[in-house]
Amino acid sequence: MTEAELEGVLSAPTTAVVAALGRVAGDILIVGVGGKMGPSLARLAVRASEAAGVERRVIGVSRFSAEATREALEASGVHTVACDLFDRHAVDRLPDAPNVVYMVGRKFGTGADQPATWATNAYLPGLVAERFAGSRIVAFSTGNVYPLSPVSGLGPAEDAAVGPIGEYAQAALARERVLEFFSRRNRTPMAILRLNYAIEPRYGVLRDIADRVFAGQPIDLATGFVNVIWQRDANAIALRALERCAVPPFVLNVTGVPAIAVRDLAAAFAERFGVEPRLEGVESATALLSNASRCREVFGEPPVSIDEMVDRVAAWMAVGGRSLNRATHFEEREGRF
């Protein structure tokens, strides 16, 4: 499979997202489109809109430090706008859109520059929420706002107490609080999606585990269970959530259930690669988990199963498919990123 073919898989619209974007009126503006998930979400929005017979602009906003990303999006039918969100005047000049998907966030590098993480995660959401007070906004958050929870259960549901560990997670909770403030103040309908972990063959928890198995490197079992979801399925939920925006924000855990044992994932990749996995330590009694029962009730079971995800990651690696070389650090238990 080529990169272009993989991008096609990651942006293939489901029947449900086509139907949803057929009902949603107006342009869709994606803020932070240049990140790991943004390009495929933008392409998904374009393809689903075309399949629904709806004429709209899908507008991607980013600094576009990589010009190739911008060119590829434009070639896919996405209109692009270069913008430094820390420039308030540039934010004011962004085109109007009744539908906004907010994907901006900073996680890695927090330990070296905490102020930048707080400014990105807690200040910028307010600027965007003010600028698009008359729109509906779907904003990505993270399951890291929850504390570690017992692996014997499903993890925290949306109404459970939050307990962020470390400054990244604290700043992520601040993002949610700022968005909720402006939702209530300006009566802006919003949805906040607490995501963990979206995966695709070039990045994510499964790629992290597969890389270690393939290279014969040890896998620490201390964080012994993870929730994962195929990236396309997470993006489809985000677009469908435009219909669920509310005041105060509709909060949703977005991931797959149940949690999967890291030990089992390592064994699955080892079988496909014909090697023996190197496992170290024992599973702790807690892990970063999320109860996505509400997501399943609202949007149904994610179409891509864990077995399919493992197969796709393994197949991609078998043909030498590249990695984004950005470890998720899913095993981190002290909140240091």
Description:
This protein has a domain at 3-199 and 228-255: NAD(P)-binding Rossmann-like Domain (Rossmann fold), CATH 3.40.50. It is built from 12 helices and 15 strands. The chain is of the alpha/beta class and 337 residues long. Helix 3 (38-52) links the parallel strand 1 (28-31) and strand 2. Helix 8 crosses helix 10 (262-273) and helix 10 packs across helix 12 (306-318). The protein is globular and about 55 Å long. The chain has a 7-stranded parallel sheet, with helices on both faces. The chain has a two-stranded antiparallel sheet with strand order 6-15. It has a two-stranded parallel sheet with strand order 8-11. Helix content is 41%, strand content 16%.
Which structural traits does this protein have?
337 residues; alpha/beta; Rossmann fold; 41% helix; globular
